[in-house]
Amino acid sequence: MNETVRVNPIACDAHGLCAELFPEWISLDDWGYPIVRPGPVPRELKEHARRAVDACPVLALRLVQAAKQSRARVSE
Amino acid sequence: MSSSTELAPPTAAAAELPRLLAGALADRPLSLEEHFDRYGADRQTAGRSRSGELIELVAAAGLTGRGGAGFATARKLRAVADAHARPVVVGNGVEGEPVSDKDKALLRHTPHLVLDGVALAAGAVGARTAIVAFAAGATHEIAVMRAALAERERHDIDRIQIRVARVPDGFVAGEETAIIHSLNGGPATPTLTPPRPFERGVGGAPTLVQNVETLAHLALISRFGPRWFRSIGTAAEPGSALVTVGGAVARPGVYEVPLGLPVADLLAWAVGPPESLTALLVGGYFGTWVAAEQALRLRLIDADLASAGASLGARAIFALPRSACGLVESAHVIRYLADESAGQCGPCVHGLDAIAGAFERLARGGRDAAGAPAQLKRWLGQVKGRGACRHPDGAARLVESALRVFGAEVELHARGRCQGTRRAPLPLGRAR
User: Fold this and answer.
1) Which of B33, B231, B356, B383 is a good FRET partner for B58, with 20 to 30 A between their CA atoms?
2) Chain A partners within 8 Å of B192 (Cβ)
3) At what angle do helices B139-154 and B32-39 cross, to 10 degrees?
4) Disruptive mutation site among B210, B386, B390 for chain A (greatest number of A CBs within 10 Å)
5) Residues of chain B with a CB closer than 8 angstroms to some CB in chain A
6) Tell me: domain B2-229, CATH 3.90.850.10, correct?
7) A40: containing domain
């Protein structure tokens, strides 16, 4: 199952825990907000991804199925 | 009244412009009777079932959204028509773009054409209610629309309920999720997608959000058909479009043009640039600066504009005179866009503020200006694609095009010099 990491940029408050827990995939911009690599998270990194998702104090991080994102395209 | 009006298209004018603004009067909107005299009463206006017939016509016409994104209208109609709950239609007349006046002009001159489109779209997707949304500051247009709705009620024209709604003023308020957010009782700020409005919009119902100009075209396609619609424009980008022209032209205003019209013709139409131009801002504040000599070789279609990194976008064109400095003028617009951030997403709030600051240093010139391009490059890369909506992306596009087109000026500024002698201020909208 292909899953990508998705940030809700409205909810995100730049706590930065995600980048600490999942540095292979998440870095921080100059203001402390997460920059997430696009594309599916490899199986061997799933555990790190889940830990980052669980640690976010404002629940701004999610693992979503890659196919789900493409549904948004109909009205752009 | 409608029963006595002829349904035949005005053949003499069929291949000519204006279409949307045909018969527009300078001082007042067309009345319902004048509107039906001009365009013919479309007996199907309120009556078309969800047979899909109109959607097929719109698909054959190749109509695309006139609000900015240019999405295929028929696909949007279908997505909402196929939804499992009863949908709602929203006509988007919010037009938060300060350099654009085309939607307001259309609403002022021919409210019934827009309302025909609203009613037709509602019929096509099976909606019973529709809303025409305006910016709160558009008080004149709101009054015109209310009067038009009252006229239609007296003559029992529509079988659906259409109401007017006001959305707070602001650049991002016209973004479709921001309108829905406001109509649902929240602030006029964009929301995270998905869900898109066609999935969950007004009151949770699947919602068709269409720009008011798109709906007016739809009303004409319903009357005169896809072949008529395609008789102007190009095969890939058919029909006409409203364009707002401003800046260093003698007659600024809203023009209806065939898509594919040479930019040079449009400027001649606006009664020629009175002085030579440095550049055109194409597509509004989410648009792209294009050097004048390059722009004058292009036609007004996305296929051409793409070669200059531009698109029709908000269909607003601002001409920058040679006497003005593109960096100084851009700095004001970029600061405006930073201030107009909905304030929700960190990269937009902090990133656009940082970018606006660096651009201001660049515009001021001197020692601070020298380091600005490198800072801008770094921060532009950090804001793109990182908001809930496309606000940071639009602002980044403008900044990148300014750096590209005013490159010579960037070098001058780094040495403390500037070629500009006069301001040519771009409109920055009303304060919220």
Assistant:
1) B33
2) 8-10
3) 80
4) B386
5) 69, 71, 75-76, 79, 176, 191-194, 196-199, 209, 344-348, 350-351, 354, 378-379, 382, 386-388
6) no
7) 3-63
For the entire predicted model, the pTM comes to 0.92
Residue B268: pLDDT band by 50, 70, 90 thresholds? Answer: confident
CA distance B159 to B180: 23
Cβ separation B346–A32 shorter than 8 A? yes
Q: Report how far residue B27's alpha carbon sits from residue B236's, in angstroms, rounded to the nearest whole number.
A: 36
Q: Which of A12, A35, A71 comes nearest B194 by C-beta? A: A71
DSSP states along B242-282? EEEEEESSSS-EEEEEETT-BHHHHHHHTT--SS-EEEEEE
Going by C-alpha positions, the residue among B120, B29, B39 that lies closest to residue B73 is B120
Is B76's CB within 8 Å of A74's CB? yes
Q: Does domain B240-321 have CATH number 3.30.420.200?
A: no
**A49 located within any domain:** yes
- Give the number of other Cβ atoms within 10 Å of residue B406's Cβ: 26
Tell me which chain B residue has its CA closest to the CA of residue A75: B76
Among B300, B293, B285, B290, residue whose Cα is nearest residue B356? B285
